[in-house]
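Page 47, continued from p. 46.
Same chain as before, 160 aa.
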Amino acid sequence: MNLKEFVQQNTLRCVIGAFVLGIIVVAGGMVMDKASASPKFCGTCHAMKHEAATHAMSTHADVVCVECHLPHENVAIYYMEKGQTGMHDTLHQVLNDYPVHIKISDHGRDIVNSNCLRCHSSTMGNVCVDKGKDGSATCTKCHSRIPHGSNPLEGGIRVE
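Result:
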């Protein structure tokens, strides 16, 4: 029996099997998407132990990493950036070449600033903001240590 005959004789079984497989793949993807968004995942899967620890002590401890570090304009851009960032982090974890002090890229800073404004838009109407070259607010210029806390031994500010 060839494949064509098998499918013709078992069409309903094939459709049901494909449907069940699709549900398993989608559900697995949703579980992995949620798990990979957490500070616990980020802090244990690569060289961001310091970032995860300071985040846990910050005023943003209840906010998952992707709320700040991924764009939220639309779903396609979100997942493209998540995939690109994940592959970048995985590569540097495998190569074991993360620097001691991780610095956010300019692209990453733009995403974070956009998300600061997305969440804190009601506050921004009452604040005099330093504008960047493109005229947008540069929240991280003054508040770079807020989302990742501030180690009291290192100094810094804590805004409540």
